[in-house]
Structures
1.
Amino acid sequence: MFSKMLPVLTAGVIAAALALADSPQKSALDKATLESYIRHLFVMDSRIAVQIGDPKPSQELPGFLDVSVHISMGPQSQDLKFYVSKDGSRFVQGTVFDIAHNPFKSDIDKLKTDGAPSFGTTGAPVAIVEFSDFECPYCKEEAKMLRDNLLTAYPKQVKLYFREFTLESLHPWAKAAAIAGRCVMRQKADAFWDFHDWIFGQQQQITADNLKDQVNGWVKQRKDLDALQFGQCVDTKATEGEVEKSVVEGRELNVNGTPTLFINGRRIGQAIDWPSLRNIIDYEIEYQKTAKDAGDDCGCTLDLKLPGMPPPAGPTPGVVKH
C-alpha cells in the first residue's frame, strides 16, 4: 500500500549546498536548529518524529561530517543522511559517487545473500535481491511477474535471491508465514518456491487465525516433506532468527517498504512492470561483459540504486509503500 505520509529523499547526485539561515550564529551542528530547518524544508509537522544523530567524520566526503536523521510517523519510518560542513554553516543532501567504482557499490557491499532462497544460475551476470512480504498485495503481483518471466527470458543470465522484510505493524501474519517458509526450506530448498507460489496464491484466503492450519494442510499434501518435522519447526519458531536477520539487513540498506528489488545493486524501490525490468536486465547483461563489477560472481557483495537519470536537486515528495 502506498502512502504519502512521509517525503522520500531519493538517491542521486549531490544536491546543492544549502545555506542554513541569514543569521551567522545558527549551526547545523546544533540538533534543534537542524531539526527545525529540516522540518521547514520538507514540510514535516508535529505528527512526524525527527531524531538527529551525532555528527561523525565523513568517509565519503572529506571535510564534511555525516549526520543521520531518522524520521517516523506511526509504523512508517525513513533514515536520511546529510553532509554538514565542519563549521556548521552549510549542509548537503545527496549521494557521493567514486568514479573508480560501481555507482551502486555502497549498497552492494551491504547486500547479503548467504542462506537466502534463490533460483537461477550461479555465477550469472545479473543478480537480483528481492525484499518481500508474503502478506503484501504488491509483493504478490511482483512475485507472479518474476516467476512467470524471469527464467523463461533469462535461463542462464540471472540469479534471484529472496529476502524476507516483514512489516509486522501492517501485516499480522507475514512473519509467521516467513518462518514457515524457512521451515520448508530447511527440509528441501526447492520446495520453498512451491511454498512461495502457493502462499501468495492463497493470500486472500489466509488470516492470522487460520495460517497454521492452512500451511499444515499444504505440507501434509506433499510427499517430499515431513509434516511432523515441519510442525515442530513452526511451533518452536526455529527459523525466526533467519527471518529477523533478513529484516535487520534490509533496514541497514534503508529498505522502507515492499517490494524492493536490487538489480546488480540498482535499487528499484517501487513496483515495476516486466518491460521496464527487462530493459534494466538487458542493459546490465551487456554492461557486465566488460565491467565485471556486479552480478552473482563478481568478487563483490551486492548493492543497487535508482535507475535512469538523477532526480532534480532539492526535496521531492514521495511514497512509503508496503
2.
Amino acid sequence: MREERTQGLIDASQPKRLLLLTTTTGYQTRAFIETANKLDLGIVLGTDRCHVLEDPWQDGALPLRFEDPEGSARHIVEYAGRNLVHAVVCVGDRPTPTAALACARLGLLHHPLRAAESCRDKYLSRERLRAAGLDVPSFNRFPVAMDPGTILRLDPTIVHFPCVLKPLALAAGRGVIRADNPREFVTAFERIKALLLRPEVRVMREETSNFIQVEEYVEGEEIAVEAVVDRGRLRVLAIFDKPDPLVGPFFEETIYVTPSRLKPEVQGAVIKTLEQAVKAFGLYHGPLHAELRVESGEVTHTSGRVKHIWILEVAARSIGGLCSRALRFCPRPPGESFSLEEVVIRLALGEDISAVERESVASGVMMIPIPGAGLYQEVKGMEEARQTPGIKEIIIAAKPAQQLEPLPEGSSYLGFIFACGPSPELVEKALRRAHQQLHFVIAPALPVIQSAS
C-alpha cells in the first residue's frame, strides 16, 4: 500500500490528535469523544452537518462534504498542514472514502480507497466477492427510474423468487424488502424508489441512490461479526448470534448475543471466509463489521457441517448505533476493561492490540423495534425492566414528540437494552423479559393539511 506523507515528522512530545469523521446523526460520536478524552487525545470533528457556515457549532469542526471525498480529503490535508493529525476514525459508512483518501496522503494507517468504496456499494461488494470465488447470492441492479413491471417482462429469468430488493448504500435494514412473487416485486420496487427519492436521501448526493439491487434470497442462520484488520491481518473480536429469524418481508434486527452458540468448526469456517473477503476487498487497517448467513444441512448449533457461508455485508467501520456498549475488552494480563471505541482508536494510532480480548461473560443487546408509526410520547415499565436479572442498562433514544417510522423506511430504534450473564441463553432471556416490561405510548401522527390558496 503506497502512502504519501504530507505531514512533518510526528513529535512524540506533542499530545496526539484524533480526527473523527462523523455525520449529523451518528449515535457513536459521543462515545468516541469520551474515549479520546480518556486517552488524553486532542480531538477535532470533521462533519457534513453544515456546508454554509465555516464553524456552525463553534466547536472547531471541519465542514466537509462526504459526497465529495476528493475535496474533503484536500480540506483535511490542508488542516493537517497546520495541525498534526495522528489518526483518523469514521463513524458510519459515508465518511470512509474521505478517510481513505486523506490517510493515504497523510501517511496514516487506514483502509485504502478502493476497499472503502467497495464496502459502501452493495453492487461493487458483490462483484468483488464473486470474483474472489466466495459464496454470494445471484444479483442484479436496476436504475431506480425503471418500471418494475418492465424489468419482469424484459427477461422472465432475470428475477428469481423469492428475492430481496435493497438500496445500494443504506444501512441497518433500511429499504430491504423480500418479494415472493411478481406482485410483491413491483410493490417493493416502488416502495424503495419512493424512499430513495426522499429529500433526506437525495440531499446526500450519492450515486448509489440511483439504483435498486435485486438479489436471490438465501436461507440460513444470520450472524454478525465484529473485527479489526491490523495491517492486512483479520482479528475477530466477537461473533454475534441473531436469535430472531430474519425471513422478511422486512429485516429488522433486534437481538445480538455473544459468544456465538455456533459449533467451533462453524465459527472457524466463518472466520476463514471473512479472511478471504478481507483479501478480496483489499482491506488493510481499521475496523470491520460483517453480516453473514450460515446455511447447513443440519442445525449448526449441533452440527459442524456447512453448505454455504453467505456474506451479506462487509463494512469498513465498527458496529452502528449504541450496540458497541454490548462489548467490553480486557488486556492480557487482565486489567481494567475498556470499550470497542478504545480498541478502534488505539488501532488507528498504530498501537499493538494483539493482547486485547473480549471479556469472558456473555453479553447482548436488543435494538428496541418501533411497533408502528406515530409520535413518541413516553415509555412505561422502565423500573420493572431495569430490575430484570441480567439487565445491565436500558437507554431510550427516542425523544418526546419525535416522529417514529418503522422499517423499511425508518432509520432508527426506540432505544437499546443491554444484558450480561454466565451464558448466551440467559442473556437472551433477560433481554426478552425486560422488553416485555416496557410499554411505549405512541400517538397517531396528525396528517399535514396544505392550504389551497
3.
Amino acid sequence: MIDTEAIKRIHAARLQWLHNSGMAVLLLLLICLVFIAPAFISHGEVWRVVTDVIVVLVLLSGVVAVLDHRRLAATLAVLSVLVIVERSVEGLVPAGMLPLVRNVSTLGGFLVLAVAVGINVFASGHAVGDRVFGAIVLYLLIGLIWAVIYSAISLHVPNAFAGSVGVNAGLSDWVYFSFVTLTTVGYGDITPVAQGARALATLEAFIGQLYPAIIIARLVSLQSRAGQS
C-alpha cells in the first residue's frame, strides 16, 4: 500500500531543499552583480558579457527558489528563456531598439522574481530565518529594478541626469546610483534632473526608509502570534 502522507512529506522536503538552495545561489549571484563585478570589471564588452551571464543565472536560480509558487515560477521561466534568446540574437535586433529590448526583458524578470520573493517574506507559513534571508534578496532586487529603470530613462530622456554619469553610462553606474538612493546616502555625484527621474528617485528613497521598518514590524507580529498560540 502506498503511503501518500510519506510521499507528500518527501515532496515537501525536496521543494524546501530546492527553495533554500535556489535562494542561496540567488543571493550569491546578486552580491556578485551589485558589489563584486562592478569593482573588478570596467565598462566594455567584457562587462556586458559578464552582466548578461549573471542576469540570466539570477533569473534561472530564481525559478528554482520560487518553485512553490508554480505560476510565478512558470512566468519567470518563460521570461528567462526570452532573456536568453534576446541576448543570443542581438545581431537580429535593430540597433536603436536593442537597449529598450534588453531593459524591458530584464526588468520584467526582476519584477516577477521580486513578487515571488516578496510573497515568501510577507505571507504566513514561513520560518523567520527564511523570511530574513528572503528580505535581503528582495532588498537587492529592489535596487536592481530601479537601476534598470534609471538606465532606461537615461537612454530615452536626454539629460535626465546630471553629474559624473555620461551618455555611455553602463548598468554598474545605475546600480551604484540606485543603491546610494535606496540607502539615502546621496553623495550628489549623480543628480536626477528630469521630473520623472526625480519622482522615481524620491520614491526609491521613500521605499528605502520604510522597508526595514515594515520587515521588522512583520517579524515582530509573527513572533507575537506564535507566542499567543
